[in-house]
């Protein structure tokens, strides 16, 4: 498990302060960018931006587990997609307000993460990846066979955007975009906090040397399960938000190829970096949009990117930039 | 006619046979995965795509070159195996010094490429492949009708699995292989060409997958997606059996196929998920897998 990620050098205190200053600047810059994005021509297309933000949050949640916990889950689509179904179903059939639907979706991701995580952490490495993939496939088959809940092949379409808190109407895409942007920003800040908390430090210790963390008296399995549940909940938050924003929850969201896509986004952006998955998600979603007319070639291109990243570009875009700047991003 | 628990025997034995056939594919594929994992420490995500390639190579040999089923049974695994050797030499070799997870990601990417290319060229709908003339028809066993081809699939898979077991456990080549699995450095010091052994092992594992693909071609339609979902079930089979033992992989494969078949009779709704549920139970009771060594 040791070499899953590039380990950032242990910073001294002065340097650490320097990094947090840089990170603070980056977060402020990101917030400003989120505010102005819809007004930028060409890319300022709210529907596209919402999709990017939801997948960026999804990739950040995934990266919390892979980049900082050293756990490769190949079944993250399960939490994302199931939460999307829950949010879409409760919004459409129970008429719940978006914030409640999204919270319920997030909760369902957490519950699913707790159940699957408790099973998967019983094995390590390659087996862990296979178990998470198999359990996620179970969720896929369930979704396929429960059309009353999931709409089967059609999915849940035309999910209504009810009034936020029952008072604030989410009429057009731009209003919804700002809701998504707020959720995304808070989610990423939360992940940043988790990574830089004492809990996050123990996680990194487990990632780098599990045996040593055990010998230091840490209950490794509890930490792994905790990060699994956190990651699954945040993936659920991303999925539920996506269902409301894009107004669709479908089998694509729970399919194994979605689990592969989030791995790809993280890999391209740079695993074990705070901002990498965001960049990776933007790159992959833009590419899918750009190549949408080419059918199965999208799969081929994604496969090629996978192979290239694994063979020669393991640090990812943000990882390489961080190396140039000699600062962990 | 007698009835068992309200189930007509034709249905029961019919599903049992289907289960045995699925079990044959699980057994061959999980065997290939276990052999590859033993020496390369890589979980071959491309395995499903290579199984699909086997079926397509058989189809191409028949429709483009007029080569029939029987030569294909040998030729398709060889062609696929050679492609595997190329993949190992070109890509995988560069990853052995890294974490195993990179191997998984690489083979996942390769699987996407192969499946995407086949889907572009052949489309997503299945292509038919005729059952060879010698194996058409079937036997009436009194309690059920046994199609000849299906019986052949079970027998052929069992034979290939046992032959693989024999080669690995009882021959000199197998001894080299087991030695290299145990300790590659020491084995190399004894003058055995371990990198060559690794390449050939990967080629052989791919060949096994392609063989299963040829067997499957007349039963299921030849389809670019045929391997993608199957491989995930096979992963679950591997988790249940553990990859420590060759015979374990064979027994688990056939056993789970039969259980899946029985589930189709008694509780059809769960037939797609039963293997994953068994996996969850095994993880709770015996995390190392039924035949696995505790790591």
Summarize the entry for a quick read:
Chain A is an all-alpha fold and 329 residues long. Chain A has helices spanning 13-36, 46-69, 77-93, 98-120, 125-145, 147-150, 173-195, 198-208, 210-215, 220-246, 251-254, 256-269, 276-290, 297-312, 316-325.
Order of helices and strands of chain A: HHHHHHHHHHHHHHH
Strands in their spatial order, largest beta sheet of chain B: 1-2
Number of helices of chain A: 15
What is the CATH level 1 assignment of chain B?
Answer: Mainly Alpha
Q: What is Rg of chain A?
A: 19 Å
Taken from the alpha-carbon principal axes, the silhouette of chain A is: globular
How many strand units of chain B?
2
CATH topology of chain B: ABC transporter involved in vitamin B12 uptake, BtuC
Cα distance spanning the termini of chain A: 22 Å
Beta fraction of chain B? under 5%
Distance between the termini of chain B: 51 Å
Could you describe the largest sheet of chain B, including whether it forms a barrel?
A: 2 strands, antiparallel
Low-confidence stretches of chain A: none
Descriptive keywords:
heterodimer; A: 329 residues; mainly alpha; ABC transporter involved in vitamin B12 uptake, BtuC; globular; B: 295 residues; two-stranded antiparallel sheet
Characterise the protein shown here.
The complex is a heterodimer of chains A (329) and B (295). In chain A, helix 2 runs parallel beside helix 7, helix 2 packs antiparallel against helix 10 and helix 12 crosses helix 14. Chain A is mainly alpha-helical and 329 residues long. Chain A is globular. Chain B is mainly alpha-helical and 295 residues long. Chain B has a single domain, classed as Orthogonal Bundle (ABC transporter involved in vitamin B12 uptake, BtuC), CATH 1.10.3470. In chain B, helix 9 crosses helix 10. The longest helix of chain B is centred in the first third of the chain and has 32 residues. Chain B is globular, with a radius of gyration of 19 Å. The relative contact order of chain B is 0.21. Chains A and B meet through helix 5, helix 12 and helix 14 of A and helix 4, helix 9 and helix 11 of B.
């Amino acid at each position: 498990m040791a070499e899953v990620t590039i380990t950032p050098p242990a910073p001294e205190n002065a340097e650490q302060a320097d990094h947090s200053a840089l990170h603070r600047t980056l977060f402020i810059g990101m917030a400003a960018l989120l505010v102005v994005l819809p007004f930028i021509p060409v890319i300022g297309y709210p529907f596209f931006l919402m999709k990017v933000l939801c997948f960026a949050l999804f990739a950040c949640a995934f990266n919390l587990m892979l980049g900082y916990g050293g756990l490769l889950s190949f079944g993250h689509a399960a939490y994302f997609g199931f939460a999307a179904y829950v949010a879409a179903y409760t919004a459409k059939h129970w008429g719940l307000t978006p914030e409640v639907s999204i919270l319920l979706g997030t909760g369902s991701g957490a519950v699913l993460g707790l159940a699957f995580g408790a099973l998967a952490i019983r094995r390590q490495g390659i087996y862990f990846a296979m178990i998470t993939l198999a359990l996620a496939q179970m969720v896929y088959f369930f979704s396929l066979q429960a059309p009353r809940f999931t709409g089967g092949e059609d999915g849940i379409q035309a999910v209504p955007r009810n009034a936020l808190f029952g008072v604030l109407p989410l009429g057009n895409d731009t209003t919804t975009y700002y809701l998504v942007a707020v959720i995304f920003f808070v989610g990423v800040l939360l992940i940043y906090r988790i990574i830089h908390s004492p809990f996050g430090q123990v996680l990194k210790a487990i990632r780098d040397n599990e045996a040593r963390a055990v010998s230091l008296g840490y209950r490794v399995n509890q930490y792994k399960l905790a990060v699994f549940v956190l990651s699954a909940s945040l993936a659920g938050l991303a999925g539920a938000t996506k269902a409301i924003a894009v107004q669709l929850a479908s089998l694509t969201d729970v399919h194994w190829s979605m689990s592969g896509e989030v791995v790809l986004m993280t890999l391209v952006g740079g695993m074990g970096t705070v901002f990498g998955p965001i960049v990776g998600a933007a790159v992959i979603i833009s590419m899918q949009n750009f190549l949408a007319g080419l059918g199965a070639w999208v799969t081929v291109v994604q496969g090629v990117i996978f192979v290239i990243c694994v063979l020669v570009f393991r640090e990812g875009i943000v990882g390489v930039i961080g190396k140039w700047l000699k600062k962990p991003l | 006619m007698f009835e068992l628990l309200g189930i007509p025997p034709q249905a029961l034995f019919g599903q049992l046979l289907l289960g045995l056939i699925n079990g044959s594919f699980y057994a061959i594929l999980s065997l290939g995965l276990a052999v590859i994992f033993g020496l390369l420490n890589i979980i071959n995500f491309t395995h499903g795509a290579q199984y699909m390639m086997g079926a397509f190579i058989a189809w191409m040999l028949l429709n483009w070159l007029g080569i029939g089923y029987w030569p294909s049974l040998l030729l398709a695994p060889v062609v696929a195996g050679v492609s595997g050797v190329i993949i190992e030499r070109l890509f995988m070799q560069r990853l052995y010094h890294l974490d195993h997870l990179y191997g998984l990601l690489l083979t996942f990417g390769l699987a996407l490429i192969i499946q995407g290319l086949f889907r572009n060229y052949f489309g997503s709908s299945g292509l038919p492949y005729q059952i060879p003339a010698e194996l058409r028809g079937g036997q009436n066993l009194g309690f059920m009708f046994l199609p000849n081809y299906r019986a052949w699939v079970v027998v052929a898979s069992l034979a290939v699995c046992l032959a693989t077991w024999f080669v690995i456990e009882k021959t000199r080549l197998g001894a080299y292989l087991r030695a290299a699995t145990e300790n590659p450095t020491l084995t190399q010091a004894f003058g055995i060409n371990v990198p060559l052994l690794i390449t050939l092992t990967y080629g052989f594992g791919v060949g096994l997958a392609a063989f299963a693909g040829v067997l499957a071609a007349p039963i299921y339609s030849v389809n670019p997606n045929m391997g993608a979902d199957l491989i995930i079930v096979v992963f679950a089979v591997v988790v249940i059996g553990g990859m420590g033992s060759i015979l374990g992989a064979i027994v688990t494969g056939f056993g789970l196929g039969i259980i899946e078949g029985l589930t189709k009779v008694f509780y059809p709704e769960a037939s797609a998920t039963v293997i994953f549920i068994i996996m969850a139970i095994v993880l709770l009771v015996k995390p190392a897998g039924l035949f696995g060594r505790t790591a």
